Amino acid sequence: MADLARLQGRNFLVIGRAGMDLYADPPGTRIEEATRFTTALGGSSANIAVALTRQECRAALVTCVSDDAVGRFCLTQLDAYGIDRTHIRAIAGEPRNSLAVVETRIQDCQSVIYRNNAADFAMTVADVEAVDYTAFSALITTGTVLAAEPSRSAAFRAFELARAAGVPLIFDEDYRPYSWPSAAVAAEVYSRAGALCDVIVGNDVEFGFMAGHPDRGLHTARSLIAKGAQIVVYKMGEKGAVTITPEGEVSTGIYPTQALKPTGAGDSFLGAFIAGLAAGLSVRAAVLRGSAAAAMVVARVGCAPAMPTHAELDAFLAHHSGPTG
């Protein structure tokens, strides 16, 4: 078990994909009717890294990108957000960067994801062994990293190296069925990863999936604490969240917002939540910062560019008496 006080160093290593998002423009336009699109950095891990830097933390990304114009777009965007890309490797050949074509719509929002032969899945054990884990406050990874080889083995090797360095492990479940060969494989790998990590964040559907039954998700979340996790956040959408620690459980609601789209909430939640813990806040206060950040992002266009700054999040919280639910 790692010491979570280490989070206060505010320097995070994030493993996983960076991609390009194409948003049908103007907001409200359906993809099949669009004549123009706007671009943004995408990919859950890259989005989390942006969320952290916007909250006055440092973040480095470990992944692979395609050695082409789309890969270079991602690198340029990472530079613009101040994310360390020392450990990103460009690869030639057939692998291509992740691409998402997305709508800014709250009803029937379509998101078309291109992940065939994805470049980020080419990350190897050698890539993660090149990292000095002692320099970081925590290792953050998402479930998508574990969906294929050699990325899966590389991520588990990173877990080993981070643990040996006393670095906390943070796991955002981020279950994307289209990335996995089968649900059975995914459930086994998720359970293996969850048992190794100090902080696990997921929604009720993801925990239910891990449990093998939608009604058993909260039981699975609680069992992870019994197995050694220090914080488990069980998100329930509009019903808020239950946060479980060895000391007990805390229920929190959500902040009302005029949502434009459903995407980006999970990445913004995780970034602001971890930044809150890094600032020395209580678990409940950190969860509320995460919930507020999620409310802000779904009310804005895009994901990475929608991540609130520390000052914007403070202002939002100052003008809202508290969450509902």
Uncertain parts: none
Secondary-structure element pattern, one letter each: EEEHEHEEEHEHEHEHHEEEHHH
Number of strands: 13
Question: Helical element count?
Answer: 10
3D shape: globular
Radius of gyration: 18 Å
Strand ordering within the main sheet: 5-4-1-8-9-10-11-12-13
- End-to-end span in angstroms? 33 Å
Secondary structure class reads alpha/beta
Helix content: 25-40%
Which strand-content bin applies to the residues? 15-25%
The chain-level mean pLDDT equals 96
The major sheet is characterized as: 9 strands, mixed
Q: Keywords for this structure?
A:
9-stranded mixed β-sheet, globular, 4-stranded mixed β-sheet, 13 strands, 325 residues, alpha/beta, 21% strand
Report on the architecture of this protein.
The chain has 325 residues and is α/β, with parallel strands linked by helices. It is built from ten helices and 13 strands. It has helices spanning 44-54, 69-80, 125-129, 151-164, 183-196, 204-211, 217-226, 265-278, 283-298, 310-318, and strands at 11-15, 19-24, 37-42, 58-66, 88-91, 99-102, 111-114, 138-142, 169-172, 199-203, 231-235, 241-245, 248-252. The protein has a nine-stranded mixed β-sheet, with helices on both faces. A four-stranded mixed β-sheet has the order 3-2-6-7. Helix 6 (204-211) packs across helix 7 (217-226). The radius of gyration is 18 Å and the shape is globular.
